Amino acid sequence: MSPDARALLAVARKELRVLRRYPLTLLNTMLFMPLYQLVLPVLLLGTAFLVKGRSLGMDELTGTSDFGGWLSAGLVGATVTGTVLSGPAQAMASERGLGTLEQTWAMPVSRRALVLGLMTCMTGLSLLAGVTMAVLVSLVAGASYGPGTVLVLPVFAALVPGLAGMGLLSASLSLLWRQAVGLTDNLGYVVTVLAGVTFPVAVLWDALRPVSYLIPTTWAIDLSRRAALGADSLYPPAVEVCALLATSGLFLAGGTALFGRMERRMRAEGALGQH
User: Fold this and answer.
1) Which residues form the ABC transmembrane type-2 domain (predicted)?
2) Distance from C-alpha of 247 to C-alpha of 229, rounded to nearest angstrom
3) Are the C-beta atoms of 61 and 200 separated by less than 8 Å?
4) 274 CB contacts (<8 Å, ≥6 apart)?
5) Is 126 exposed, middle or buried (0-12, 13-18, 19+ CB in 10 A)?
6) Nearest one of 173, 189, 169 to 181, comparing CA atoms
7) Mean pLDDT on 262-271
8) Which end of the chain is more exposed for a tag (fewer CB within 10 A), N or C?
């Protein structure tokens, strides 16, 4: 195993140990906050407009009246994407406060591997939290999933490169601005809105819809809803699969290039070890 691979796994294990020491904080961040900030308000608002237990407007726009199932599919994508965007900045700020960031980054391994190790831990935990929330919403709202739900797994596998790019983007912003937590948190909220987590992308303004199409989470969520619920998709599935792969690759390439540029800039200024 290469040094970078060992460093990636070591960082992932270290982050997992730290989070396990504070289980209430982990539950609050991964489960309770999304529940009371996003899930419950949207679910209750949608339930208030049901007609004889069916969401007629959603049926017309999306091809399914299963509001709980439709929302659940979006929650998984939103949880993973939001965590990956905000996580690296929060972790770097925490290590900076503890005084361990410089020692960690001084190791003779790729700093990109350190960020990806952090992202690996957070992606796994956020996936678990997202699935847990989806199950809870499904039980409360009585969602019904079809046999195609198993196809959601390869869809989110195709999203992973895009998530890696988002994590590198978050780390790049942390290098550029030392206190980037607020910025990355807000960026996660914007992506959640544009990806159509709580409403169909079709209702977005015409000026914003092309931006939504550039986000890989948009395609992952839309494909998941079609696979699990038989809902209508924005475009034919083959086109959406290509769009998901293309945007994931674009985010990975862009995040890698930006992180490398920020790292070279910090090294040239002699500030990387004192960040």
Assistant:
1) 32-262
2) 24
3) yes
4) 102
5) buried
6) 173
7) 72
8) N
CA dihedral 31, 34, 39, 41 (to 10 degrees): 130
What tokens appear for 248 in the block? 């994931």
DSSP code per residue over the chain: --HHHHHHHHHHHHHHHHHHT-HHHHHIIIIIHHIIIIIHHHHHHHHHT-BTTB-HHHHHHHS---HHHHHHHHHHHHHHHHHHHHHHHHHHHHHHHHT-HHHHHTSSS-HHHHHHHHHHHHHHHHHHHHHHHHHHHHHHHT----GGGGGHHHHHHHHHHHHHHHHHHHHHHHHHSSS-HHHHHHHHHHHHHHTTSSS-GGGS-TTTHHHHHT-HHHHHHHHHHHHHH----SS-HHHHHHHHHHHHHHHHHHHHHHHHHHHHHHHHTT-GGG-
pLDDT, tens digit, 9 for 90 and up, residues 10-57: 777 877 787 778 777 777 777 777 777 777 777 777 776 667 666 666
Q: What is the DSSP string of 8-37?
A: HHHHHHHHHHHHHT-HHHHHIIIIIHHIII
> What's the whole-model pTM score?
0.83
Q: The tokens of 31 are what?
A: 């489960």
Nearest-Å Rg of the Cα atoms of the chain is 19
Count CA within 13 A, CB hemisphere, residue 265: 11
Residue 206, classified by CB atoms within 10 Å of its CB into exposed (0-12), middle (13-18) or buried (19+), is exposed
Report the chain's mean pLDDT, rounded to a whole number: 79
Please check whether residue 125 is in contact with residue 210, taking contact to mean a CB–CB distance below 8 angstroms: no
Structure tokens at 272: 């990387």
Task: Give the distance, in angstroms, between the CA of residue 208 and the centroid of all CA atoms in the same chain.
Answer: 20
Burial class (CB in 10 A: 0-12, 13-18, 19+), 110: middle
